[in-house]
Amino acid sequence: MSVKHALLGILNEAPKHGYDLKRAFDDKLGDLWVLNVGQIYTTLERLHSEGLVEYDTIEQSDKPDKKVYRITPAGKDIFETWRISPLKVEPRSLRDELYVKIAFMDDTDAESILMLIQSQHSTYMAQMMALTNRKFHIEQESKIALSKANTSEAQHQIEREKVIKMALLDVAIFHAEADIRWLRQCEVRIKELFFRS
Amino acid sequence: MHTTNVISLKSVSKTYTQGKTQIPALSNITLTIGGGQFVAIMGASGSGKSTLLHVIAGLTNPTSGEISLFGQDIHTMNDAQLTRFRREHVGFIFQTFNLLPTMTALENVALPLLIGGQKLRDVRPQAEELLALVDLTSRQNHRPDELSGGQQQRVAIARALINQSPLLLADEPTGNLDSKTGEEILLLMRELVTNQKRTIVMVTHDPKAAAYADKIVTLSDGRVIEELSAIGSLTPVLS
């Protein structure tokens, strides 16, 4: 993932100085991506040297000068192209540690491998419960917010926020589900292997 | 009611006899479910999960063991007592919705009270209120075949609520629905528990549906192999 495009995206909404940029970034993507101020400034410098952003310097009497960054037309082009381009994805990594354990399973101890699968299954299931709980709360909060919103613009904004939050929770839940289905399949196969009579 | 156990099973077993062979469906199940809880029962097909729901509902008699609902022993009740007890305490939600095709949504919702001898004009306000709760006010005069699957299931939920039943039993309630519609039904069920302190026991094989529950009971070969409770902890990714 690229910090560059995320920062261009934020500046595409409105000009901001470094600290505000960090706050906007945390707001939008903080759940999945921890970024320090240093990384933000390094990226801004690079974007500036590539001509994708420019800044105005604002003098402050008792503090160092403040740079307010804005996106350039070239930056807008790069961002818009990126926003509508599909990813060149690698398939999801198959280097699952649990698979490595299965590859080394102890033929004389079926019980321990089945217990490992069961306990891993519980972990994913608990994770899914917590994620689903988040979904329920977002749903409830947005219902309350919608009932208080009095313009269609405000309603749209609330719906939009919800869609974005749900998209992240959905992908986490679907991945957990894939792991759960995989473990169940492994369990059936391993039971067949050991207990076929 | 909300602090005590709504459902309590002690050493419940159920064995079916087929010819000369005994087929154990439930083996020695001990389980308590508190008021205001959403519990999912999971397990592979043949694990006994539907039998367990039927035993809790008093629709199937256990071979041995004790079952009490709201502090009353149901394994000692006769059929007439059970029928009355169920009518007052338990609402059912089925995978296939089970609405009467010739009746409107409103009449279907009111049905349990109509069977109890009340007049439609007297119970109409109550049925209308429940249809509003499930967001179907505009469909109250439609018949089931004029409603989508998700709408039919919402009618069925409203019907399950009309007796003020504090306990809802659901058998694969989202089994016939697409995932987005299923999610709406599950959110509605979660609301009934969180906001109205109802108790729901739901059988499902879908982990995504089970994840709406406060507790997941997993069965295998008629035994409880795990009880998993929701805890606050979360993966670092989304904490």
Structure overview:
The complex is a heterodimer of chains A (197) and B (239). With 197 residues, chain A is mainly alpha-helical. Chain A has seven helices and three strands, in the order H-E-H-H-E-E-H-H-H-H. A three-stranded antiparallel β-sheet of chain A has the order 1-3-2. In chain A, helix 1 (3-13) crosses helix 4. Chain A is elongated. In chain B, helix 3 runs parallel beside helix 5 (149-161). Chain B is an alpha/beta fold and 239 residues long. A six-stranded mixed β-sheet of chain B has the order 6-7-8-3-9-10. Chain B is 33% helix and 28% strand. In chain B, strand 7 (167-171), helix 6 (179-196) and strand 8 (199-203) form a beta-alpha-beta unit. Chain B has seven helices and ten strands. Mean pLDDT of chain B is 90; it is low at 233-239. Chain A binds chain B through residues 31-32, 118, 122, 125-134, 136, 139-140, 168-169, 172-173, 176-177, 180-181, and chain B through 187, 190-191, 194, 207-208, 210-213, 216, 225-226, 228, 230-235, 237-238.
Provide key terms for this protein.
heterodimer, A: 197 residues, mainly alpha, 3-stranded antiparallel sheet, 3 strands, 7% strand, elongated, B: 239 residues, alpha/beta, 6-stranded mixed sheet, 4-stranded antiparallel sheet, 7 helices, 10 strands, 28% strand, disordered C terminus
Mean pLDDT of chain A: 90
Helicity level of chain B: 25-40%
Total strand segments of chain B:
10
Please report the distance between the alpha carbons of the first and last residues of chain A.
51 Å
Question: Given the helix and strand composition of chain B, which structural class is it?
Answer: alpha/beta
Strand order in the sheet with the most strands of chain B:
6-7-8-3-9-10
Q: Classify the beta-strand content of chain B into a percent band.
A: 25-35%
Average pLDDT rating of chain B: 90
Distance, first to last CA of chain B: 33 Å
SSE layout:
The complex is a heterodimer of chains A (197) and B (239).
Chain A: H1 3-13, E1 16-17, H2 18-29, H3 37-49, E2 53-58, E3 66-71, H4 73-84, H5 97-103, H6 110-148, H7 152-195
Antiparallel strand pairs in A: 1-3, 2-3
Chain B: E1 5-18, E2 21-34, E3 38-42, H1 49-56, E4 64-69, E5 72-73, H2 79-89, E6 90-93, H3 105-115, H4 120-133, H5 149-161, E7 167-171, H6 179-196, E8 199-203, H7 207-210, E9 215-220, E10 223-229
Parallel strand pairs in B: 3-8, 3-9, 6-7, 7-8
Antiparallel strand pairs in B: 1-2, 1-4, 4-5, 9-10
Helix pairs in contact in B: 3-4, 3-5, 4-5, 5-6
